[in-house]
Specification:
The chain is α/β, with parallel strands linked by helices. The protein is built from 19 helices and nine strands. A nine-stranded mixed sheet has the order 1-2-3-5-4-6-7-8-9, sandwiched between helices.
Length: about 575
């Protein structure tokens, strides 16, 4: 056995027939397991973990049946085999912890195995040295990506492990049936070099994409950090500063930081935007805007990403031209520290009411007492809860009207409908994130499929319009089963969703608008909600708009817009409201 640096012939298959048969068997198994891993849609977590376990064992076996001659390279090959065996043992011991552990195990295994291969490259010569360097580098990069990018790792750990096993198995099969002594394989190292270069380029490209997407994620600045001393009383203005992003000529704007209250009376801090016309005579009526879904992470606040369009508000010019002031909350947990109470009524409604209270303390804004709440989608849910909470939580707010447009009112029906919605998994992730954080009896384990959990957790960290969200959506689409583990409308989650349906009485005049072609908020579910409210004695002015989908309902050309403006003027004038019940 030579001690010279390994050349292209330093890994020759055994000339003994039995040795070549063993190499061929290991190669064939590697190809089969690798192909299955690379192509399987991962419908079963148990099968995914089993195949990953087999893949690690096959990788270890391939190192042992193809040991190089030089002692150092032999020791490194044995070390790599040991790493693969340890990874297999870890999978067996920690299987109960699910796919997140599999991601870590495979990521660490690829990383360590790649580093060992690079270390051994200095004993190689010529093209084999480059193969070792590039092959090890690609393995290490893929390992790092698996650890750093969890929502694609649920797919990547299988695909990457599978592809590597297929390449490894093909190489072993070739060596078994075409011994290098024939001289026919001199070009094989060059083919491997091409493959390794391609692998490094792919890994590098994915790393650059990952870094670019992470940099694109919006982050709140220091304005949103709570001061060291915060009053316990809600609705107190803590901080304000001029705001200019997308503010039209002839208007003034400020972003404000204020105190509010989460569920169960827990004090919190939230942010909001105040916009008023520069030319004004006397106090301005307030339009309190509750925005639609932007995400559930602190960076998803409209004042951080886009003050108006992010939450589907397209009517600022109409508000200002009517001589009204605009107060738009970000909600607690968006901009400020989380968690964000997504579709949890108390936290949303209190954020709206306390924003109005705090905005009145901004003396230069010149706001009057009359307040009308507008809300769309998630914000429609918030607007309804604002109307419910106002008389007891904020009796000092003169609430003269509540307008909820395509509100997420019937939460059980909404959750049932999400699997039918394109990208519905995004909204599902926000619901799961908020409800598991708020309610101890709602858990990921009970409601989210184990192999989808890393994806759902990552989606919940991303804003709706964030570029990296497309990665999460693509990953979910590659799975052939829903993210839900069974029916989500059961057990504690179903009970908590029902708790957050806005069924309390609203004293202020109430307008509910709904697009007849809404693909997110099912019009039939909205009809059912309105029927229930009417049966309970609630006054409702319910209007349905044919041909309007979810966001188009509130776009400037929607027939709902002039009706909303006319309805608001009537409320400010004190005219009696219409009841369509």
């Amino acid at each position: 056995m030579t001690t010279e640096p390994r050349s292209s012939a330093s890994r020759q298959p055994s000339r003994h027939r039995g040795g070549r048969v063993l190499v061929a068997v290991v190669g064939a198994v590697a190809v089969l397991v690798g192909g299955w891993l690379a192509l399987l849609p991962f419908a079963s977590l148990a099968l995914l973990l089993l195949l990953l376990l087999l893949g690690l064992l096959v990788a270890a076996a391939s190192e042992l049946v193809d040991l190089p001659g030089p002692p150092l390279l032999r020791r490194l090959a044995l070390a790599r085999a040991g790493v693969y065996v340890l990874g297999a043992v870890a999978l067996v011991l920690w299987t109960g912890l699910g796919v997140r552990v599999a991601i870590v195990v495979i990521g660490v295994t690829l990383l360590v195995g790649g580093v060992l291969e690079v270390v051994g490259a200095r004993r190689e010569q010529g093209v084999e040295r480059w193969n070792a360097v590039l092959g090890g580098a690609s393995s290490a990069l893929f390992g790092l990506l698996a650890l750093a990018w969890p929502d694609i790792s649920v797919i990547a750990v299988g695909v990457l492990t599978g592809v590597r096993l297929v390449v490894l198995g093909a190489r072993l099969l070739w060596r078994a049936v075409r011994p290098a002594a024939t001289g026919s394989g001199r070009w094989r190292p060059w083919l491997r070099l091409v493959g390794n270069v391609a692998a490094v380029l792919v890994a590098g490209l994915l790393a650059l994409v990952s870094l670019s997407l992470n940099r694109a994620a919006p982050q709140p600045d220091s304005f949103y950090t709570a001061p060291s001393s915060v009053p316990a009383q809600p609705g107190q203005l803590l901080r304000s500063e001029a705001y200019t992003t997308k503010i039209p000529a002839g208007a003034q704007a400020w972003r404000i930081l204020y105190t509010t209250t989460r569920d169960e009376g827990v004090p919190a801090v939230a942010s909001a935007l105040v916009v008023v016309p520069e030319q004004r005579s006397g106090p301005l009526p307030v339009i309190a805007w509750a925005h639609g879904t932007t995400g559930a992470a602190p960076g998803c606040a409209p004042t951080v990403i886009d003050p108006f369009e992010a939450g589907a508000f397209f009517l600022l010019d109409r508000v200002l031209s009517n001589g009204w002031g605009f107060v738009g909350t970000d909600y607690v947990g968006l901009g400020t520290a989380g968690p964000h109470p997504y579709l949890i009524g108390q936290g949303e409604g209190r954020s709206v009411l306390d924003a109005v209270r705090a905005a009145h303390q901004l003396s230069e804004a010149g706001l009057g007492e009359q307040t009308v709440v507008w809300g769309h989608s998630q914000g429609g849910h918030a607007a309804l809860w604002t109307g419910i909470l106002a008389p007891t939580y904020a009796p000092d707010v003169d609430l003269v009207g509540v307008a909820a447009l395509a509100p997420a009112s019937n939460l059980p029906a909404l959750v049932d409908h999400l699997p039918e919605v394109t990208g519905g998994e995004l909204f599902a992730s926000y619901v799961v994130d908020a409800y598991t954080r708020r309610y101890p009896d709602v858990t990921y384990r009970e409601y989210v499929r184990p192999q989808a959990e890393p994806v759902v957790r990552e989606m919940a960290k991303r804003c709706l319009a964030e570029p990296s969200t497309l990665v999460s959506v693509a990953t979910v689409l590659s799975l052939d089963s829903p993210v839900w583990r069974g029916d989500p409308n059961r057990g504690p989650l179903a009970a908590r969703l029902r708790e957050n349906v806005p069924t309390g009485r609203i004293e202020a005049p109430l307008l509910i608008g709904q697009g007849a072609d809404d693909s997110l908020v099912d019009p039939r579910a909205q009809d059912a909600y309105v029927r229930d409210r009417c049966a309970a004695g609630q006054q409702v002015d319910y209007r349905v708009y044919p041909g309007r989908d979810h966001v188009p309902l509130v776009e400037p050309d929607s027939p709902a817009v002039p009706e909303l403006l006319a309805w608001t003027k009537a409320r400010l004038a004190g005219d009696p409201p219409k009841n369509t019940c």
